[in-house]
Amino acid sequence: MITDFRLKVFKSVADRLSFTKAAAELLISQPAVTKHISELERQTGTPLFVRHGNSITLTASGELMLDYANRILALYGSLNDAFTDEGKLPSGRIRIGASTTIAQYVLPGLLAAFRRRYPDVRVELENGNTGQIEEQVAAGRLDFGMIEGRASGHALHYEQFLHDELVLVTSVSNSAFRRLEVSLRELCGLPLVIRETGSGTLEVLEQALGHAGLSLRAMRIEIQLGSTESIKRYLYNSGAFAFISVQAVLDELAQNKLRVVEVPELDMHRSFSFVTAHGQRGRLIELFKQFCISNYNRRL
């Protein structure tokens, strides 16, 4: 593989803000990492990191170096892809970021199948909300992301992966409410549990309410929680309701723990999308995206 190892060392330290973690990732000693960084600082004539005891941060020059390193290493990746033997099983590393619903309910089975098919490809997965994943892709810290919709103004490239729908659910044990559907007016009176600001799920809910002439301020928000799993467990022990991806409640519906309450006046459909930086088209990225498209079983 053609690359600039010193730039790889710098990028690993910059991404993790740790010489120790970079050494572990690259399978080299910490003194070797320090030597590579010191040589880069000598060549550029400026400090790239500020040391604060046991922690480090990037200097302004370090931030500039990271921007160039991301672009240069991406070009090395494309160069290596161009000379890869098509008959050989691919190898290498891809860094994927996925928003919460996708990371928890869509990707695990796909990752296991991908690993069986391509054992020499190392996949690193980071979890965050949609906004966080977009920021990391834009900054070059992730090769690509998988997000719930399109949430920001970043200059990124989006490709649709699959369709999803948010459904209103409540606990089967919610004896105070037995109806199968509610109107918008009645929805405003139900105690709702919602996701945190920046969540793709919350964005879809806000858009759907807006199209119906409502806003979150019109809703009776009981609590705001930071994950779908915490919301589901809250519902089990309350009379509250929540809008959740149907992908995330398939097991609970089958096990008769949660049930769907229809809201005919709300359109709660959305898309899950791949997101990449413009021009980012490495072989491993395309391989994983096509594998996802070909192998995802919707179970619906």
Written account of the structure:
The protein has 300 residues and is of the alpha/beta class. Among the domains are: 83 residues, Arc Repressor Mutant, subunit A (Orthogonal Bundle), CATH 1.10.10.10; 107 residues, 3-Layer(aba) Sandwich (D-Maltodextrin-Binding Protein, domain 2), CATH 3.40.190.290. It has eleven helices and eleven strands. Strands 3, 4, 5, 6, 7, 8, 9, 10 and 11 form a nine-stranded mixed sheet that branches. The longest helix is centred in the N-terminal third of the chain and has 23 residues. It is elongated and about 70 Å long. The mean pLDDT is 87.
Radius of gyration: 23 Å
Task: From the 3D structure, determine the CATH topology of the domain at 163-269.
Answer: D-Maltodextrin-Binding Protein, domain 2
Percentage of residues in helical conformation: 40-55%
Q: How far from one another are the termini?
A: 42 Å
Strand content: 15-25%
Q: Helical region count? A: 11
Helix/strand structural class = alpha/beta
Tally the beta strands.
11
Determine and state the CATH class of the domain at 163-269. Answer: Alpha Beta
Look at the structure and give the mean pLDDT: 87
Summarize the structure.
The protein is an alpha/beta fold. Helices cover 43% and strands 25% of the residues.
Please render the helix and strand layout as text.
Layout: H1 5-16, H2 19-26, H3 30-44, E1 49-52, E2 55-58, H4 60-82, E3 92-99, H5 100-117, E4 121-128, H6 130-138, E5 144-148, E6 156-171, H7 184-187, E7 191-195, H8 200-211, E8 220-225, H9 228-236, E9 241-245, H10 250-254, E10 258-261, E11 269-277, H11 283-295
Parallel strand pairs: 3-4, 3-5, 7-8, 7-9
Antiparallel strand pairs: 1-2, 5-11, 6-9, 6-10, 6-11
Helix pairs in contact: 1-2, 1-3, 1-4, 2-3
